[in-house]
Design a protein that fits this description.
By secondary structure, the chain is of the alpha+beta class. It has one domain: Cytidine Deaminase, domain 2. It has 5 helices and 12 strands. Strands 1, 2, 5, 6, 7, 10, 11 and 12 form an 8-stranded mixed β-sheet that branches. Strand 8 and strand 9 form a beta hairpin. It is globular, with a radius of gyration of 18 Å. The protein binds zinc ion (ZN). Zinc ion (ZN) binds next to strand 6.
């Protein structure tokens, strides 16, 4: 079962996704269960970033009512591969720094991937990589890596404090920010130190202060994300007529 703090954060995130739907030409549905699994992998891989591959779940087409509720005014129904299906199981593909994470080891490429489809091969439709302690805004290396993606690229930014209490958060980057739960600006006073509010805890015991999630198409346009349950229904989205 997905942690309740993550469901709460997903509800808040989805609300913002719906409010901003007219700013996007397409959207994806990502099961929140996958996000929890990816978070677990991310903390185990620290300080590395991780790369995750996904295929569309071809047994779960998007619900017609969800499509109607999530489409913006400028919707493009044919922007990328797998657009009409809920995103399937995550596969941990690689780990490394912000550059090397996109370069899947060559022996894997020979065995598993078609080698003429860019640094990450062509096995998966969608990709996600993590930004531990950095905002979810694509770097130049990220934009390059996305050039061979048929579906969407996603970035998960994770703000956390180390077990010794130290926090490092790099946010000096221009771009549209999509926090899972907007920062409350409520820094609790803790002795003489001011502490950042805690969103949730990782399986490794790290305090998670914030999460950011974005998706984008290789042409550079942003793709809206909604976090869904196992039936493909966005958390917190009111579907009265169902
Ligand atoms: Zn990156």
């Amino acid at each position: 079962m997905v942690a309740s703090w993550l469901i709460d954060a997903a509800i808040s995130y989805n609300r913002a996704s719906l409010e901003n739907r007219d700013s996007y030409s397409a959207f994806v549905l990502l099961p929140v269960r996958h996000l929890e699994r990816i978070l677990n992998w991310s903390f185990k891989a620290l300080p590395d970033e991780i790369l995750i591959g996904f295929d569309p779940m071809d047994t779960m087409p998007m619900d017609a009512e969800v499509i109607q509720a999530c489409c913006g005014a400028e919707h493009d129904s044919d922007l990328f591969a797998g657009q009409n299906f809920v995103i399937g199981e995550p596969h941990l593909v690689n780990r490394g720094n912000s550059y090397s994470v996109h370069h899947v080891p060559e022996e894997w490429m020979d065995d598993l991937f078609a080698s003429n489809r860019g640094s990450r091969g062509a096995r998966f439709t969608h990709w996600m990589h993590t930004h531990p302690n950095c905002v979810a805004i694509p770097s130049e290396a990220d934009a390059d890596a996305a050039q061979h993606t048929d579906g969407v690229d996603m970035i998960l930014g994770i703000e956390f404090s180390n077990p010794d209490g130290s926090v490092f958060w790099f946010d000096d980057v221009e771009g549209v920010r999509r926090p899972l739960k907007p920062p409350t600006r409520s820094w609790r006073r803790w002795g003489r130190r001011r502490q950042r509010s805690v969103l949730g805890r990782s399986s490794t015991g790290h305090r998670i202060h914030g999460l950011e999630l974005i998706a984008y198409h290789r042409t550079g346009v942003g793709v809206n994300v909604l976090l869904v349950d196992d039936e493909g229904m966005p958390h917190g989205l009111n579907m009265d007529s169902r």
